[in-house]
Amino acid sequence: MPKLNHMKILAIIYIISTPLHVFGMEPDSKNNVLTLNDLEAVALNQSLDIKSKEYEVIATQEKSHSLTSNYIPKLSLEGSYKYLSEIPEINMAPGRVLKFGDNINYSIGPTLTMTLFDFGAKSQLQKSLNMNVSAKKNEVNNLKSNVLFKSRLHYINLALLLEKRVLIANSLKVAHKQLKDVSSKQRFGSGSRLDLLTAQKEVHELESLLKETSFNIEAEKSELYKVSSSQKIKEINFESDQNYLEKLEFIKNRFINYKSRNYITIENARIKSLKDQSESLENHASSISKQRYPKVNLFVKSSLDYPNGPDLTPFNQNAVGITLSMPIFDGGELSHSAGEKQNQALALSHQVLNEERNLNESIQLLLKRIDNLTEQNEIIQKKIIESNEISKLLYKSYLEGHTTFIEVERANVKSREAQLNLSTNVYQITFNLIQLANIAGE
To answer: Could you give the C-alpha distances from 342 to 117, 129, 240, 312, 339, in angstroms and in order?
Structure first.
C-alpha cells in the first residue's frame, strides 16, 4: 500500500476535525434533533395565522374578479305581471265599445344590459380592489417573516438556556468536588466552619439555578409549540451532545450577511402593505367622486307581451335603447363618502412616513449594536481565560491554606459569569441579526 505524503495526512486530519458548520451544514441535521430549518418549515406550514390571512387574500381576489364582470354585457330574464282594474276604452257606435287592452297584463323575456360610459368610476374601483389584493398579499409576507422571526427567537432562546444549563451543571460538578475537599479539610481540622458553609451555599445556589433553568427550557419549548401550532414539536428532541454555543455560532453565521445588506433598496412588507392600502383608498375615493357624473347604459330586450292593445293575444316585442342617469341631489352622501376614503388614505400615507423613519433608525441602531457586541466578544474571551486561571490559582491557594473558600467561591462565580457572558454575547449578536432578517422580510 503506497504511503500518503505529509500534506495529504494533514488534509485528512483537517477535514475530520472541522466542525460541520464550517461546511454550511447545520449541526444535528443528521441526528434526531430539531434544527432551525426544520422549525422554520413546520412553523410556516402549520401556522393558522398565515392560513387565515391567505384566505383573506383569496376573498379579496374573488371580490376583485367579481367587478371585472361589469365590463361585459349582462344577460338576465325579466318578467312582470299586473292586473288593471280599469281598461281604456272608446265607444265606436251605439252599443259597441272598443277596449285598448285587458285587465291582465304580463311581459317576459331576456334582457341584455351594459354600461357604455361612467367617467371611469368602475375602472377606479377596479384599481382600488387590485391594490387591496396587493396589500393583503404583503400582509401575508409580513406575517410569514414575523412567524420566522418568532421561531428563530424562541429557538435561540432555547439554545442559550440549554447552554446555560450545561454551564451550571458543570459548575455544580466542580462545586460538589470542592465541597468534598472542604469537608475533608474540616474533618482533619484544617478548615473553618465558614468555608464549609460557603461551599454548601454555592452547591445549593447552583442546584436552585439548575432547576429554574430547566423550567425555563420547558417554558420555551411551550412557546415553540405556540409558534408552530404543530403537535410534532412536543414530540421532537431538542437536546443533543453538541456544544450549544457552537449551535448559536452556526445560526449567527447563517444570518451574518444581513449586516452588509443595502437596506435602502429593501422595502419592508408591512410598509408595502400600508402603501397599497393608501393607494386603494385613493382610488376608491376617486371612484365615488366620479359617480357624480352621468352614466350611460345600453339595453336590448326581447319579450313576449300581453295584450297587444285591442288585440287580446300575446305578441313578440323587441326593444333597444340607452339610459342616462345622474345624481342631482343626494344630501352630500357622495362627497362625504369620498372625503372619508381620501382622509383614510392620507392617514395611512403619514403612517408610512413614520414607519419608514422608525425603521431606518432601528436598522442603524441594530448595525451599531452588532458592531459593539462583536468588539466585546474578544474581550469576553480574554476574561474567560483570566477568570478560569484565577479560579484555579485561588483554589490551589485555598488547598495550601493561604486563602479562604469565600474568595474561591467569588472566583468561581466570576468564571461562570464570564463563560455565560460569551454565550449571551453570541446570542445578542444573533438576535440583532434575525431582526435585520425580519426587516428584510426573510
So the answer is: 24, 15, 58, 58, 5
